[in-house]
Amino acid sequence: MRVLEVKGLRKQFGDQTVLEDVSFTIPSQCIFGFLGQNGAGKTTTMKLILGLLKATSGEIFVCGEPVVYGNTKTNRLIGYLPDVPEFYAYMTPREYLLLCAEVTGLPKHVIKDRCDELLDLVGLSNVNRRIGGFSRGMKQRLGIAQALLNNPTLLICDEPTSALDPVGRKEILDVLLKVKEQTTVLFSTHILSDVEQICDQIAILHEGKLVLTGDLLTLKKQFAPRQIQLEFKDAAHANEVHSLLLNEARIQKINQQATMLNVEVNDLEGDGQHLLKLILEARIPIYQFKVVEPSLESLFMEVIGCEPMLPL
């Protein structure tokens, strides 16, 4: 089932076009990574999905129902976590969820059990101190619990791991993996390593245009550069090999960082053997010859037209 369908979405603010012909779909029980640099248009897209902005053109459907600006009936199917959620600082997490459940209109006989279930899901069931003393990661986890109160079909998270330390980020990612069992997740971020850990499908937004979308593993194999990493004793040997390979037709691109070369080829096996043969025939000592597994970073940099960093 298609939980979210975005068709030909376009958004202008005055003379400025911030989204142009954006189309993608999200199936059920999927964590969908919505990627892009700051200012790419991710938050604008999410506000359009929530019916908080009016699209210049295009259509959005949630579980087959159209999203209508100013008449957001589809929001009963959506849970939303903004990038900086706000709370009543004087409340405990349980008090806050109980209040939200009442305001949301949950039946009274299910409120306590639902709040207990969600606090357990996000690891806050035994936390009784006031929210004002929470870390940012704890607030994000409470925000996820609040967004899930109504058992939404779609959970939208806007940069949920930004500004968190590694422990806080892992806690949020673990929660989202658990949520996937019941709810489809749209996970907006610019932190590529987080996407690589938990997402099934991705879409990359660049300057308001969708440049790539699909299954993450398939896209990495199809589009990420085929690279071989070479490491040498010193920069002089690396420079020598760099010069040796400049006129090789099999070599697509070479990136050098001190004693290390990243060589992009068409055919990892055939071109790799040829590359190694050239180095051995030139009697240049080599410390390491390694095929670089396709990464989301290399894919992302490729499609937005930037040079990737050499792996460390």
UniProtKB/TrEMBL annotation:
ABC transporter domain residues: 4-232
UniProt source species: Turicibacter faecis
Family, similarity comment: Belongs to the ABC transporter superfamily.
MF GO annotations: ATP binding
Gene3D superfamilies per the UniProt record, alphabetical: P-loop containing nucleotide triphosphate hydrolases
Keyword Flavoprotein found: no
Regions crossing the membrane: none
Coiled-coil annotated spans: none
Protein name: ABC transporter ATP-binding protein
UniProt xrefs under InterPro entries: AAA+_ATPase, ABC_transporter-like_ATP-bd, DrrA1/2-like_C, P-loop_NTPase
Superkingdom assignment: Bacteria
Alphabetic keyword roster: ATP-binding, Nucleotide-binding, Transport
Matching SMART domains: AAA
Alphabetized Pfam families for the sequence: ABC_tran (PF00005), DrrA1-3_C (PF13732)
